[in-house]
């Protein structure tokens, strides 16, 4: 659903650019809390998501290369908002998808540069807000179990894709450059993206379910699933204590909770991303995705413009001057995974360090005051 240059006029593109910038700014503040383990649902599990946030962005980039057929002559691909929000939190999720869109637009000429605000608003902000909001509602009403979290992931991801199609239709109604009836755009966009949403839901549910099965503590949406460890005193060891008091559960000290390394999960995720982008992507559907198909059939692309980075050495997910399509596409995918991982990890590491530094200042001030 990457919107090219020329689909939306300049005033609406500028307005969505401002909205996207505001959303990213708010997400930067929120992501500090999510990555530092503070705020609602924080704790040690939240701290462990920091090394994975850049990986989530790289994984979304890789899986977006795997277009899957959804109808005659049409394909779809992961948008990733639901997956990112559930794995690392909604604020961090917006940043993950935004990093992916930025790398795709700058390096691979995928999604217009003047339409970057439109794409971030539609694919990062709308999908994340809709998916995570619905996910939290479902988690509250469904039984507290890992299976329920997988079901909630599936449903929220499914709904997020047609929601993004509706959002695009609204932006087109405000600033579409082609004279196409709004009803036709709405019907075509929502119809095909409901089908794409099924693929999005399956990928999201499988990924979330796999991570929950091995490390539920790393999944932002799974916090609180497991009751905290409690120690119960025995009546035999509590001499003279009342029976009721003896049976009272006592929270276990924080030191008793082992801190497990995320290295294996990180390496497994990176390997999966590299395999998807560097190998499986060669077998992805070559059919146009949902927006491309609708734009061609309905005439929305009448005033589309060439991408400013069309001469990039990585344009169209291939390496310039390498004639073998499998090698060219695979190498471009690997480069994209590496670049997205580097940029994403850099952003999230800086955010976490700044949050930790801000949290340390009051303590330093108090210590100085006591010495004085």
Characterize this entry briefly.
This protein is mainly alpha-helical and 372 residues long. The protein contains twelve helices and four strands; from the N terminus they run αααββαααααβαβααα.
Describe the fold and architecture.
The chain has 372 residues and is mostly helical. The chain contains twelve helices and four strands. It has helices spanning 10-36, 44-47, 50-64, 81-88, 90-108, 116-141, 146-175, 182-214, 243-246, 263-278, 290-298, 325-371; strands at 68-71, 74-76, 230-232, 249-251. The strands form two sheets. A two-stranded antiparallel ribbon has the order 1-2. A two-stranded antiparallel sheet has the order 3-4. The longest helix has 47 residues, at 325-371. The protein starts with 9 loop residues before the first helix and ends with a helix. Mean pLDDT is 87; it is low at 38-46, 227-232 and 250-257.
SSE blueprint and pairings:
Layout: H1 10-36, H2 44-47, H3 50-64, E1 68-71, E2 74-76, H4 81-88, H5 90-108, H6 116-141, H7 146-175, H8 182-214, E3 230-232, H9 243-246, E4 249-251, H10 263-278, H11 290-298, H12 325-371
Antiparallel strand pairs: 1-2, 3-4
Helix pairs in contact: 1-5, 1-6, 1-12, 3-4, 3-5, 3-10, 3-12, 4-5, 4-6, 4-7, 4-8, 5-6, 5-12, 6-7, 7-8, 8-11, 10-12
């Amino acid at each position: 659903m990457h919107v090219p240059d020329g689909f939306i006029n300049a005033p609406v593109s500028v307005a969505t650019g401002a909205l996207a910038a505001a959303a990213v700014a708010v997400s930067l503040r929120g992501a500090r809390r999510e990555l530092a383990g503070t705020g609602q649902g924080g704790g040690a599990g939240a701290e462990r998501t920091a090394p994975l946030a850049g990986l989530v962005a790289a994984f979304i980039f890789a899986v977006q290369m795997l277009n899957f057929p959804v109808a005659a002559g049409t394909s779809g691909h992961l948008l990733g908002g639901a997956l990112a929000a559930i794995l690392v939190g909604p604020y961090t999720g917006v940043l993950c998808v935004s990093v992916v869109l930025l790398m795709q637009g700058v390096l691979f000429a995928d999604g217009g540069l003047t339409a970057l605000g439109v794409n971030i608003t539609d694919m990062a902000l709308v999908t994340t807000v809709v998916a995570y909001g619905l996910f939290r509602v479902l988690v509250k009403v469904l039984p507290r179990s890992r299976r329920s979290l997988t079901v909630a992931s599936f449903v929220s991801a499914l709904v997020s894709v047609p929601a993004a199609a509706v959002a695009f239709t609204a932006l087109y109604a405000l600033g579409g450059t082609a004279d196409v009836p709004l009803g036709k755009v709405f019907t075509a966009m929502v119809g095909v993206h409901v089908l794409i949403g099924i693929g999005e839901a399956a990928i999201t549910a499988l990924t979330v379910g796999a991570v929950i099965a091995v490390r539920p503590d790393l999944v932002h949406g799974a916090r609180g699933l497991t009751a905290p460890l409690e120690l119960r005193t025995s009546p035999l060891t509590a001499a003279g204590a009342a029976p009721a008091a003896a049976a009272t559960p006592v929270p276990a000290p924080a030191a008793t909770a082992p801190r497990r390394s995320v290295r294996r999960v990180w390496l497994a995720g990176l390997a999966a991303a590299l395999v998807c982008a560097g190998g499986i992507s060669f077998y992805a559907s070559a059919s146009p995705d949902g927006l491309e198909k609708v734009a061609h059939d309905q005439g929305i692309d009448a005033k589309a413009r060439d991408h400013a980075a069309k001469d990039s050495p990585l344009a169209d997910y291939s390496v310039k001057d390498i004639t073998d399509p499998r090698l060219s596409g695979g190498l471009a995918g690997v480069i994209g995974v590496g670049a997205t991982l580097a940029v994403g990890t850099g952003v999230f590491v800086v955010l976490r360090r700044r949050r930790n530094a801000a949290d340390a200042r009051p303590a330093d001030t108090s210590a100085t005051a006591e010495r004085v």
